[in-house]
Structure formats: C-alpha cells, structure tokens
Amino acid sequence: MELYIVRHGxxxxxxxxxxxxxxxxxxxxxxxxxxxxxxxxxxxxxxxxIYASPLKRAYETACILKGDRDLTVIVDDRIKEIGFxxxxxxxxxxxxxxxxxxxxxxxxxxxLYEAPEGAETLEGVSERAADFMKEIIEKHKNxxxxxxxxxxxxxxxMMRYIRKNEIKDFWMGKxxxxxxxxxxxxxxxxxxxxxxxKVFYE
Length: 202
Hints:
This protein is an alpha/beta fold. It has a single domain (about 1-85, about 120-200), classed as Phosphoglycerate mutase-like (Rossmann fold), CATH 3.40.50. It is built from seven helices and six strands; from the N terminus they run βααβαβαααβαββ. The chain has helices at about 10-15, 30-40, 55-65, 90-95, 105-110, 120-140, 150-165, and strands spanning about 1-5, 50, 75, 145-150, 180-185, 190-200. The chain has a six-stranded mixed β-sheet, with helices on both faces. β5 and β6 (about 190-200) form a beta hairpin. The longest helix has 18 residues, at about 120-140. It is globular and about 50 Å long.
C-alpha cells in the first residue's frame, strides 16, 4: 500500500505569515489554482480512499484533488493541525525571532517547545497522528493507495510515526510546500519513503 500525505493549498494566513493551527482559514485563489493543477497532475493515479482534516483549507484541497473519482472525502479530527492557542494569528516571523516566546523553539529545538495557553503539545499531536496512522494502515492494508490531506505539523507527526523519530527530530526533512506530497510505501509493517515533498503541478 502507498500513502500520499499531502499538505493543503496556500491560505490567506500563509500569505500573511500568520501562525495558523486550529483557526479555520480559507484557501486563497492561488491556493485553489495550485490544488487544481495538482489534481490534473494526479488524475491518472488510482486511490482507494481519501482522508482529510476537518479544517476547510485541507478539506477543500482534498475535494479538489479527488477530481471525478467516485470517492467520498472522509473527515477525521485526528489529522487537524496542531493548535497554537493564544498564538493563533500572531505574526510568524516576529514570534519566531523573539527568543523569550514559547514559540521560539518550535522549529529549532522541538524537544524544548512548551505549548502556550490553550495550545497543544508536539507529543499530543504525535499521539493522535499515530492513532490515526495505525487505524488507516490496518483498515487499508489490502488496498493500493490512500490519500491523506492535512497540514504541515500534523503531517510531520505522521512521518514521526513512520520514521520512529524522537521529538528532537520532529522536523526531519523539509517542511512540505503547499500541495506538496510525501509518498510512503507500507508493506508488512515496514515503511519506505519513496518521495518527499513531491509536487504534481508545473
């Protein structure tokens, strides 16, 4: 079985460089167009199931990528983005550059990250991502291919389950681009990353 783990298209907050977790932000028109181009690039690939985060940026991306396939996009709360609590909507560059901020270590030293008020820990998002992955792999073990459309951090949490990473290596590899696809082969409980952050648009 292959997993196609996809990051959603560009949103208004991606464009404005705002911290975006559980906030439910729309795709930009550019984000939709890149998703449409990605759908064309994947139109001949067979999928047995498509899963998406409930947040509309991921769900809309999944619906676009589905194209004319006779499938229902299955929404699963376990793959919504990590929550940033009181930092939702904050200026990403300003907060990341502030060494007194709890967000400062999020990317650079994830093992030291302390979730701010109302936010979720990296351990928490890793646990729900692992729970989702175990269920999907068992449910679809005899299928050919499954698409999962979610978000930057939760996709890394899924990859953490696949790679058996420690928290300090949470961000191993590049952060997926919008509509970037990580392709993973799963056979007999063993994983092989075939493509990391592949794009299907020109």
